[in-house]
Design a protein that fits this description.
single chain; 280 residues; globular
Length: 280
């Protein structure tokens, strides 16, 4: 395992090159969004962030881990996240009321509502070369027809496939063909009792909530479970914990090695895995 850092900032390619080229990085010429990945202990990290600060350029810095293939192959359970982001649930100013039972959310921080109806979207998801895309805001997976059929034919447990509908102000619903939400039905017990959660910076005036949802995250840290707490785990699971930053939280997706094997053997694109630590 190697600790890495991802730095993202907005700047035109010509001006971004002034910062990036001396450090051996390339600028993205097709967009203002610039992204740089490097080892956490790389000296260029300090040089880049100091250069951005001198120019008054705001940036986002996130730590993550890269695992060797052998570490993934031997893991019984893995945390799976999306690599390709696409779209927002609709309507943008009220998707919670359309797709969730908002009465199940924390009344203070409004996190933790349970989805009870399918999502609505503007258009058919653009999968591109990916089999899986991840929705902004909710971080739910949308599968194409190929991976949906593979999962169903493999009899993997703990999830259902829900339809996705085109949003229409008239109220009419038209099912989107070839796109399916992976709806996870299995929820795990809490992580190991000594698991240390990061308290994330929140917008001004917002404090971590006493419910334990808003304000906690695991960034650059692996999830850990006691082996006895995974006795009833299925192939697809969501964490008991709600994690994230800012105003949004989500339940992480934890999958069995069977899911990892299916995805890797079929070269499924759009997701990445990291091992879950299991303790006696």
């Amino acid at each position: 395992m190697r600790k890495m850092v991802w730095i993202r900032f907005s700047e035109h390619a010509d001006r971004a090159y002034e910062l990036l080229r001396p450090l051996g990085f390339k600028a993205n010429e097709s967009t203002w969004i610039q992204e740089v990945n490097m080892p956490f202990d790389d000296e260029r990290r300090r040089m880049l962030t100091e250069g951005l600060a001198r120019r008054g350029i705001a940036y986002t810095e996130m730590e993550y881990q890269v695992f060797e293939e052998g570490e993934l192959r031997t893991a019984d359970y893995l945390h799976v996240t999306g690599k390709a982001m696409w779209g927002y649930p609709q309507p943008e100013d009220g998707y919670e009321r359309e797709s969730y039972d908002v009465s199940t959310a924390c009344p203070k921080c409004l996190q933790g509502a349970r989805q009870v109806r399918p999502f609505m979207v503007k258009n058919r998801p653009n999968f591109g070369k990916n089999d899986v895309v991840t929705m902004f805001w909710t971080y739910d997976f949308l599968f194409n027809e190929r991976i949906k059929d593979l999962v169903k034919d493999s009899s993997l447990t703990g999830a259902e496939f829900w339809p996705v509908f085109k949003y229409r102000k008239t109220g009419l619903r038209e099912e989107v063909r070839g796109a399916y939400q992976l709806f996870i039905t299995s929820e795990l017990p809490p992580m190991a009792a000594d698991m240390k959660f990061e308290m994330v910076p929140l917008p001004k005036g917002v404090k971590p909530c006493s419910c334990g949802k808003l304000g906690r995250n695991l960034r650059g840290t692996q999830a850990r479970y006691r082996s006895k707490d995974l006795r009833h785990a299925m192939d697809f699971n969501k964490t008991y914990e709600w994690l994230g930053g800012g105003y949004g939280t989500t339940q992480w997706k934890v999958v069995s090695h069977r899911v990892y094997d299916l995805f890797t053997e079929n070269k499924i694109k759009g997701v990445k895995f990291e091992p879950v630590i299991i303790e006696e």
